[in-house]
């Protein structure tokens, strides 16, 4: 009997020593088999009057199939959070939480109401609720510290998963180049709250107030700043650094040569630094593109055509210029008008503003020339309604007996 008791005692001492050794290991040396996840990504925000709350779940990530208890204790940022309550998400699970106002530690012990109760794993098991200092308080993993977690009395890993600030998104492809529209956008929410206003400052004198907005840069480094205001009245500012390369500025002229029955195109593109090493012409008809600097082109049918010249420099920057030519007598454009279209790209509506009174026709066409919209307009401001159109690129044209003014617009 003494021998049996000695063996049992030896086993117990060995197990205790093993457990003590495991508990004393630094956090970075512990196996990540068992992890307690405090998932702020799934947080629910609420308010009662002027008091705002955050409530987020705790998940026990483990391969164990017979977990009977878990414990944790930690400190948290008192200037942001005030502990409110702990709620068990499963029947038969008891969660005992206590906030010690002397040590400022929140502790929790959870177990089943019966000896045979097995705690569900890899799903939310409890929710922690805190009052927020104000409606604009943002919670991150750094707001919790001195963290300890146990699975069945054995120390486990832990993770506070919190949303990171979403960056400004750049929709334009690299390289970013001068003379081109650079398109920026931002999501519709910030920290789980809907954004009501956007205020862009592109650092070059341009500003904007759309979710998606555009600007052009000179060569060099630039900082784009966006201030968003949410439905809660909270303001937050996000910045993004971008660098623009010096690119070409495409341009051309066209003269009709009656003897050749062809338009003769002359490249007038410029570049401040570097060299233009590629020219691509699209004549707006069924003919293939050409890749020479100064081409000529004969049209098979009478009419007006959108001609586009795209030039590319040796640093990879491209720029396009397009204009309308007739099959016989050159370029038509309302050059004596100053007209702008904004915002571009646009989610639903944009507007053309002219510095002079205009009377004529506005048409919206697909890139293959199909007319989608056509109406008579007059005045100095014209609404372009894209709400019913599919996402893509369209041509908006203003026409009268003096010629045509054409814009490309992107519907998002």
What does this structure look like?
This protein has 412 residues and is mainly β. The protein has 4 domains: 146 residues, Immunoglobulin-like (Sandwich), CATH 2.60.40; 76 residues, Sandwich (Immunoglobulin-like); 81 residues, Immunoglobulin-like (Sandwich); 73 residues, Immunoglobulin-like. The protein is 5% helix and 53% strand. The protein is built from 1 helix and 31 strands. The strands form 7 sheets. Strands 1, 2, 3, 5, 8 and 11 form a 6-stranded mixed beta sheet that branches. Strand 30 and strand 31 form a beta hairpin. It is elongated. 21% of the residues are buried. The N terminus is likely disordered.
SSE topology sketch:
Elements: H1 2-23, E1 35-39, E2 44-48, E3 51-61, E4 69-76, E5 81-88, E6 93-100, E7 105-112, E8 124-132, E9 144-151, E10 154-155, E11 157-161, E12 169-170, E13 182-185, E14 189-190, E15 193-201, E16 207-208, E17 212-215, E18 220-230, E19 235-244, E20 252-257, E21 262-267, E22 276-282, E23 296-297, E24 304-313, E25 318-326, E26 331-332, E27 339-342, E28 349-365, E29 371-385, E30 392-400, E31 403-411
Parallel strand pairs: 1-11
Antiparallel strand pairs: 1-3, 2-3, 3-8, 4-7, 4-9, 5-8, 6-7, 9-10, 12-13, 13-17, 14-15, 15-16, 15-18, 18-19, 20-21, 21-23, 22-24, 24-25, 25-26, 27-28, 28-29, 28-30, 30-31
CATH fold-level assignment of the largest domain: Immunoglobulin-like
What percent strand?
A: over 45%
Main β-sheet: number of strands, strand sense, barrel status?
6 strands, mixed
User: Which structural category do the helix and sheet elements fall into?
Assistant: mainly beta
> How far do the termini sit from each other?
83 Å
Mean of all residue-level pLDDT scores = 88
Name of the CATH first level of the largest domain:
Mainly Beta
Question: What overall geometry do the principal axes of the alpha carbons give?
Answer: elongated
Query: Helical content, roughly?
Result: under 10%
Evaluate the radius of gyration: 33 Å
Quickly count the helices.
1
Count of strand segments = 31
Number of domains: 4
Low-confidence stretches: 1-31
Shape-level CATH architecture of the largest domain? Sandwich
């Amino acid at each position: 009997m003494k021998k049996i008791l000695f063996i049992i005692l030896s086993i117990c001492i060995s197990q205790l020593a093993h457990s003590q050794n495991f508990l004393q290991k630094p956090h970075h040396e512990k196996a990540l088999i068992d992890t307690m996840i405090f998932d702020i990504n799934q947080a629910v925000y609420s308010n009662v009057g002027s008091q705002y709350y955050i409530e987020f779940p705790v998940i026990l990530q483990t391969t164990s199939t017979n977990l009977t208890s878990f414990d944790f204790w930690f400190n948290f940022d008192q200037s942001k959070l005030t502990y409110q309550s702990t709620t068990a998400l499963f029947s038969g699970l008891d969660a005992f939480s206590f906030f010690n106002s002397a040590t400022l530690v929140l502790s929790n012990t959870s177990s089943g109401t019966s000896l045979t109760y097995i705690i569900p794993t890899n799903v939310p098991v409890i929710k922690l609720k805190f009052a927020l200092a104000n409606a604009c308080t943002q919670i991150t993993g750094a707001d919790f510290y001195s963290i300890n977690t146990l699975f069945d009395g054995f120390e486990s890993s832990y993770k506070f998963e919190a949303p990171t600030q979403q960056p400004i998104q750049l929709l334009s492809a690299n390289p970013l180049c001068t003379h081109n529209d650079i398109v920026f956008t931002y999501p519709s929410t910030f920290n789980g709250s809907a954004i009501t206003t956007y205020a862009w400052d592109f650092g070059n004198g341009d500003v904007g107030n759309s979710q998606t907005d555009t600007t052009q840069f000179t060569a060099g480094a630039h900082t784009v700043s966006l201030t968003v205001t949410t439905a809660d009245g909270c303001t937050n500012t996000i910045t993004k650094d971008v660098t623009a390369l010096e690119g070409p500025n495409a341009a051309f002229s066209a003269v009709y040569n009656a003897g050749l029955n062809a338009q003769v195109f002359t490249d007038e593109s410029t570049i401040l630094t570097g060299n233009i090493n590629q020219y691509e012409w699209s004549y707006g008809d069924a003919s293939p593109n050409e890749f020479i600097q100064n081409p000529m082109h004969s049209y098979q049918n009478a009419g007006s055509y959108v001609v586009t010249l795209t030039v590319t420099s040796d640093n990879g920057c491209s720029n396009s210029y397009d204009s309308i030519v007739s099959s016989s007598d050159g370029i038509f454009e309302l050059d004596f008008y100053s007209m702008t279209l904004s915002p571009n790209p646009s989610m639903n509506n944009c507007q053309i503003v002219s510095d002079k009174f205009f009377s004529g026709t506005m048409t919206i066409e697909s890139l293959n020339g199909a007319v989608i919209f056509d109406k008579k307009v007059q005045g100095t401001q014209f609404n372009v309604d894209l709400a019913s159109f599919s996402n893509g690129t369209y041509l908006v044209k203003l026409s009268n007996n003096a010629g045509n003014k054409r814009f490309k617009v992107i519907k998002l």
